[in-house]
Amino acid sequence: MQTQDLAYQDTKFTLDTYFLDPIADFETQVERPLAIICPGGAFRFQSDREAQPIAMQFNAAGMHALVLHYQLFDGDTPVYPLALQEMATTLNWLKSQKENHHIDLNKVVLIGFSAGSQIVANFNSIMLDPEQREKIFTDELTVEPAANILSYPVIDMTLGWPKDEDWAMKISPDIYYWQAQEHLTDHGKPTFIWQTVTDQAVPVMNSIIYAQKMDLLGIPYEMHLFGSGSHGLSMATYVTQNPGNEANLNSNDAKWWELCLNWLKLQKILPKF
């Protein structure tokens, strides 16, 4: 892992990069897909359980990975729109890295967990629509994601998370950014969604309303709602278990990763074999 510092205007932010090395004995190097990961953490912090372990899973599947340390509420600066501008800056930066790291820029995937998923959903809704994007990001978006993965996502901040409206106002004093589904257009990309119906922190209706809007717009999606399990599962295996916390383990919910890989193959982001 290496750290990369980027900036949007005067604001600096950081990426953790997990680029796969070229295979020396290949006569022709493979251009590989890439995942940009937005960990959760209620916009207060970013969970390590949803960072490096997820990046390493993508590496094992043959994909480059980045962890985006997006804007959190720091007591002064709200999350939005800066987090979306940082994502756009990251995507544009990838173009300069294409040759160095053999990146397939047509196969970039955004993946979010919990609060990080709202950044991905809002990006899919707002930043891929040129008319909405130009209001907050005046540069051209030279690289667009091909697909999204939403893991127990916050979509609509009026649906039960956060419970405190004051915290929502700190995340974004502009309520435009509160409801990602409201701004989704047919510019949105195919999306994989998973959550548990017993999620105690983020109501499952968040996933349902985003899938419903995608369905209305004819955007391809796949959604898996598991019958039990807590919020913040990450991989739902011992790999991401906080020692002693049995709620981090769920063998049924852990199947989301296999289902996700299969979906990436259906989207032709990963090869079938």
Automatic annotation (TrEMBL):
<dbReference type="InterPro" id="IPR050300">
    <property type="entry name" value="GDXG_lipolytic_enzyme"/>
</dbReference>
<dbReference type="GO" id="GO:0016787">
    <property type="term" value="F:hydrolase activity"/>
</dbReference>
<dbReference type="InterPro" id="IPR013094">
    <property type="entry name" value="AB_hydrolase_3"/>
</dbReference>
<protein>
    <submittedName>
        <fullName>Putative lipase esterase (Putative)</fullName>
    </submittedName>
</protein>
<dbReference type="Pfam" id="PF07859">
    <property type="entry name" value="Abhydrolase_3"/>
</dbReference>
<keyword id="KW-0378">Hydrolase</keyword>
<dbReference type="InterPro" id="IPR029058">
    <property type="entry name" value="AB_hydrolase_fold"/>
</dbReference>
<feature type="domain" description="Alpha/beta hydrolase fold-3">
    <location>
        <begin position="79"/>
        <end position="158"/>
    </location>
</feature>
